[in-house]
Design brief:
The chain has a single domain, classed as Rossmann fold (3-Layer(aba) Sandwich), CATH 3.40.50. It is 45% helix and 15% strand. α1 packs across α9. The mean pLDDT is 95.
Amino acid sequence: MPLLQNHIAVVTGAGSGIGRAIAKGYAGEGARVVLLDMNDKAAADVVSEIRDAGGKAESFALDVTKRDDCVAMATQVADKVGKVSILVNNAGIARRNGMLGAAEAVINDWEDIIAINLTGVFNVTHAFLEPLRAAKGRIVNIGSIQSFVHLRTPSSPAYTASKHGVLGFTKALAAELGKDGVRVNAIGPGFIETPLNEKMRAANPALVQVFMDHTPLGRPGKPEDIVGPAIFLASDLSAYVSGTIVMVDGGYRTI
């Protein structure tokens, strides 16, 4: 029997990269997947791929920074799809600007990154909390290696703060919702090749090499590398796992 049979899974930022890979992986394990993304066409294209492969999926446009829209989306999904039992908070952005740049840019980075990467996780989780509690559901948040450390390369204080916040939110929510049977965990990707960092990789191969020099497995990750851990945390294989983060970083934190 597929590991996620009879589950309805919501995945944010599902139009590309890690979210796309997780949505397809969940569908392959029998889940009915709801793909949420600001880019509704990209999400709809992934739905077509899932359906062509025999899976079940729907997509809706959502900006996770808009709290009222998240609440309305939870109602829409309940009415049109059913009761959600898995939530993956994947939507996020990354900007590698420091604190010493132009004040306006620094402030904009902080406001945008925190709004999407951290407040967005809260908005979506809060909106879907009722069905998740009723289903004794599973929440999977996408953190980062920067949930623990500031990278050996220049990077945004806002991004680092947001991913520390995701890990803290994960632990706090696991403690609060455990009595309801809801498990809350996170995944900490390392350097993963996605459309989000495609331009940076092309423009700055030396920076990519810095990451590789600190990755024992010696290669960048692929979005598909996140799928197995995401299935594990959403399935009964992890029935006694909550409040933790599974690192998928090629061993980056060991060096």
